[in-house]
Structures are given as C-alpha cells and as structure tokens.
Amino acid sequence: MDRISIHVRRTVRPSERVLKGAMLALAILFLLLGIMLSRGMMLPCFLMAMAYLWYDHATKRDYEYVLENDVLKIDRLMERGRVTLHEIPFREFQVLARPDDPAVAPYRKGSGEKVKKYDYTSYAEGVPWYTLIAREDGETVKLLLDLTDEAIRVIRRANRAAVRV
Fold it and tell me: 104's torsion region: left (phi>0), alpha (psi -120 to 50) or beta?
C-alpha cells in the first residue's frame, strides 16, 4: 500500500484571538503603568508577556495523519520534532462516519457509552471532518479527523464494515 500523508494546521479560533488580544493589552497597560507610576508594575507586565508567549506557543497545533501498511498514525508536529499520538490498525476501526451519522450517535457526549475524545481537526470552514471510533490499547477512543477522499477509499478497502461515508 502506498503511503498517504495528510498535514493539518489548526486555525486560530475567534475566542483565542480575543484572549491573546486581552493578554497583550494588559501587558502593554502594565508596562505603561510601570513607566508612569511605579516600577512594581513591571513584574505583572513581564508575567503577562510570558503568559502570552507561552499561550501563543501552546496553541499552535500541526498534525500529520499517515496511512501506511493498514495503520493510521497521528503525529503532532512541533518545532523540535514530532510526537506520535496514536497508532491504530485499520482492523480496530469500529465506525468512520460524518459527525451527524446515526452510527456515531451512541458515542456523543451525554449518550450511553463513555469514550475519550481527541480532536485533530483544523477548524477551517468548508473542510469536511469525520468521526472515527476505534479500539486503542483495550479502550474505545473517538477521533475527530480531517480526512481526504483518497484516505477514506484506502480505509474502506481495508475495513469496509467500519466506513459509513
């Protein structure tokens, strides 16, 4: 089987923009207060600037899905390398469907079965995303993924019963 690699870059949500703007505005305000009133305001300025930089770094998310040898591998890409988050064989897939499909209804929040949910989507408008229910290390997990048509065809060839798209 050929190797299929899908790169997903998470877009910034509007709520994150507001939070980052507020953090930056507070850092500038504390800086100005430190200059005009008291040097004691420089510490909150420094702490807010550090919090902004940490939050900015922590919210940058790039993922790569690799489909190779009937295994789905999901990696988080970082500046200093990559971390493998999941490695799931296609035979462990229970359901791959759109989020509004009745096949994934038992796994929704507030439904009967409790599953761990992992969101690896880009949040980009117009990009279809899919819900994958699979067994990993003896427990059921729910993965939200931005898959291409080619990736869905490859998964369908290996595990036709699980694909509901």
Answer: alpha
Whether the per-residue pLDDT at 119 is higher than 80: the answer is yes
Nearest to 115 by CA among 101, 90, 94: 94
What is the C-alpha to C-alpha distance for residues 116 and 132, in angstroms, rounded to an integer? 12
For the entire predicted model, the pTM comes to 0.79
118: Cβ contacts below 8 Å, ≥ 6 apart: 85, 86, 141, 142, 143, 144
The DSSP string of 32-81 is: HHHHHT-GGGHHHHHHHHHHHHHHHHHT--EEEEEEETTEEEEEEEETTE
| Per-residue tokens: 118 | 């992992």
Residue type, 30: F
Angle at alpha carbon of residue 87, lines to 119 and 132, rounded to 5°:
45
pLDDT, tens digit (0-9, with 9 covering 90-100), for 65-104: 999 999 999 999 988 888 999 999 999 999 999 988 888 8
Task: Give 163's DSSP letter.
Answer: B
Q: Which of 82, 87, 83, 27 is nearest to 56 (CA)?
A: 27
Measured distance CA(145)–CA(19) in Å, rounded: 26
